[in-house]
């Protein structure tokens, strides 16, 4: 495990149905009794439903404000269970769904669960002699969970799960236990895209920033986006090709900037000439990305080109493109690449290209 990790008025009225001297129950009284009975029945059903139905835990981010020292983490062992794709762990008494926050560090195949509790040894502890003592409160599919551990801070316990692949997770709490189900992204989303920004220092991080803006826009269009960690190699991180394979992504887009000297400007796209599928493929994706981004920012479209030797595109097995968003050697274009509104327009152009790919690929029945 890495040494550190970042850490959701009273009104009086006269009833016209009540006649003076009438000893029977008036019609309105019947109605009141009926509504009272229905209200009581509904409340009883709601109470029963809340008691027996698991409450879904919403995904959020573990706080970025604090760093937890994982060198002091207690190593835990997940007791094997036969239910595939599932992890089950108990929680301290009184913990509710609102006390649990999760974060999916998919680039590390790691999943974090932070539990707001005052316990310091519920899941395990380290003895005075330095030996980890596991309380045995975690069970899981042995083919899913490679390693697990817990670290404590002043706000509670952080459970760390190192997983065998990239998954999405659905958590629910049922009384004092949490059920965590790992789901393949392709089983949860209709369309998946991987965005691979280059070094975050180029043009003040334009590639990463545009990728994040595009991902936010695409989430409203029904597209799930995974963004690679720029500039990180090894140490448990997945490669762009692994992320594409393990998420069963539909398309791959690498984002970068060019360094073509001070006199050149414009947008260019690259493709893998060795990858071919019938219908909508890498060339079509290249053309769409080039057209939509160039139009969005009114820049020159420099055309599509075969990717140079050693490009990541040659490792990708889905329609893939490398797009250079501009030339950072050109002072005017570099200034534009650092402009907030310009980046918004680039993101919108890229979003339109992804949505076009989703529409076109969805029309091809041979993919089903």
Spatially, the strands of the biggest sheet line up as: 2-14-15-6-11-5
- Write out the CATH superfamily name of the largest domain: Zn-dependent exopeptidases
How does the helix and strand content classify structurally?
alpha+beta
Strand content: 25-35%
Characteristics of this structure?
368 residues, alpha+beta, Immunoglobulin-like, Aminopeptidase, six-stranded mixed beta sheet, disordered N terminus
How is this structure best summarized?
The protein is of the alpha+beta class.
Give the SSE layout.
Layout: E1 4-5, H1 27-52, E2 55-57, E3 68-69, E4 74-76, E5 79-80, E6 86-90, E7 100-105, E8 110-116, E9 124-126, E10 132-134, E11 138-140, E12 145-153, E13 156-163, E14 168-174, E15 177-183, H2 185-188, E16 192-197, H3 206-219, E17 224-227, H4 240-246, E18 251-258, E19 267-271, H5 282-297, E20 301-306, E21 320-327, H6 331-337, H7 340-362
Parallel strand pairs: 5-11, 16-17, 16-18, 18-21, 19-20
Antiparallel strand pairs: 1-3, 2-14, 4-12, 6-11, 6-15, 7-8, 8-13, 9-10, 12-13, 14-15, 19-21
Helix pairs in contact: 3-7, 5-7
């Amino acid at each position: 495990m890495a040494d550190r990790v970042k850490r959701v008025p009273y009104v009086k009225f006269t009833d016209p149905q009540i006649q003076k001297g009438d000893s029977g129950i008036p019609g309105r009284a019947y109605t009141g009794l009926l509504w009272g009975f229905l209200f009581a029945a509904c409340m009883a059903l709601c109470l029963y439903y809340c008691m027996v139905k698991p409450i879904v835990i919403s995904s959020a981010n573990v706080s970025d404000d604090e760093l937890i020292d994982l060198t002091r983490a207690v190593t835990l062992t997940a007791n094997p269970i036969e239910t595939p794709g599932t992890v089950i762990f108990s929680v301290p008494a009184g913990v509710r769904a609102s006390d649990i926050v999760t974060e999916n560090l998919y680039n590390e195949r790691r999943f974090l669960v932070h539990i707001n509790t005052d316990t310091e040894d519920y899941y395990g502890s380290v003895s005075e002699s330095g030996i980890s003592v596991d309380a045995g409160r975690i069970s899981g599919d042995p083919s899913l969970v490679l390693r697990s551990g817990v670290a404590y801070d002043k706000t509670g316990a952080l459970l760390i799960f190192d997983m065998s692949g990239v998954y999405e997770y659905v958590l629910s709490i049922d009384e004092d236990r949490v059920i965590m189900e790992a789901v393949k992204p392709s089983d949860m989303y209709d369309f998946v895209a991987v965005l691979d920004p280059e070094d975050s220092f180029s043009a003040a991080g334009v590639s990463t920033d545009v990728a994040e803006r595009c991902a936010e826009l695409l989430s409203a269009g029904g597209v799930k986006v995974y963004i690679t960690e720029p500039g990180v190699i090894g140490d448990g991180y997945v490669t762009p090709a692994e992320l594409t394979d393990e998420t069963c992504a539909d398309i791959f887009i690498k984002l970068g900037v060019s360094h073509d000297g001070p006199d050149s400007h414009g947008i260019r796209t690259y493709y893998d000439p060795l990858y071919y599928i019938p219908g909508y493929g890498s060339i079509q994706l290249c053309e769409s990305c080039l057209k939509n981004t160039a139009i969005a920012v009114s820049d020159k479209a420099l055309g599509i080109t075969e990717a140079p030797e050693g490009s990541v595109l040659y490792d990708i097995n889905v329609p893939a493109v490398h797009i250079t968003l501009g030339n950072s050697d050109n002072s005017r274009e570099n200034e534009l690449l650092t402009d907030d509104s310009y980046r918004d327009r680039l993101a919108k152009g890229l979003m339109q290209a992804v949505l076009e790919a989703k529409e076109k690929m969805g029309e091809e029945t041979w993919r089903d």
